[in-house]
Amino acid sequence: MVGAVEMVCKGTLEKYIGLVQNQPEEEMDQEDIWIFGYGSLVWKADFPFKEKRTGYIKGFLRRFYQNSIDHRGTLERPGRVVTLIHSENSESRVWGMGYRIAANEKAEVLQHLDHREKNGYERHRVQFYPYPWSAEQLNDPQPILLYVATHDNPSFAGLNDTLEEIAEQALGAAGQSGRNPEYIYKLAEAMRQLYPGEQDEHLFELEKLLLSRDPVMLERNKQEPGVANEGDANRSEQCKEG
Predict the structure, then answer these.
(1) What φ, ψ does residue 142 adopt, rounded to 5°?
(2) pTM of the model
(3) What is the 3-state secondary structure (H, E, C) of 209-240?
(4) Which of 39, 46, 64, 209 has the fewest CB atoms within 10 Å, counting from its CB?
(5) Tens digits of residue pLDDT in 59-75
(6) How far apart are CA 25 and CA 110, in angstroms?
(7) Set 26, 108, 117, 219: catalytic member
(8) Using omega within 30 degrees of 0 as the cis cutoff, is the peptide bond preceding 132 cis?
(9) How far is CA 143 from its chain centroid?
């Protein structure tokens, strides 16, 4: 998609999401863009990029408040995937991965991502803070595009489900990208590997609930008793599967 990117800010997101102004096509064509991944894009980017950079955005919380009827579930048995919601704390951080897309490839990449996130997500621009400091990579804050599920889209699950309810829904769901629990395990392990010591209680508590109930993981631990006490190592290998 070439030219102006229209950003529609909804509800409380307006305080933290900037509107992308109309820009001449030639200006857009000459600039690289950054894309922020906070879900599966953290560990697996299915588009070309020039550079990737660890870091975070501010003022949001990562939550499993979006139903998935394609990648991690079906229409009959939706799964759960992440979106972002506004945080009352403007300094709240969501850790993820920034990808720099070449100017001559961004039209194709944005078209791909618009289709990939068609199940209720809209494109927005926020500020990205690279971390940790690097002598080889970008360190200055940058505007970055990301996809946020709108609260009025048909697959938005609402803000009130408990982690118990989300876990039960995820356990029985699978879609074209695989079992729903595997998505949660991979995201949790990616956070531990990339940002050791940082806490995402919603994500880690959901992972803990699933590991205690997931028949696949329980059976795997039964067959490989040594792995039962080495959950992090086990999930690390899953993460490498992409």
Answers:
(1) -135, 145
(2) 0.80
(3) HHHCCCHHHHHHHHHCHHHHCCHHHHHHHHHH
(4) 46
(5) 999 999 999 999 999 99
(6) 15
(7) 117
(8) yes
(9) 17
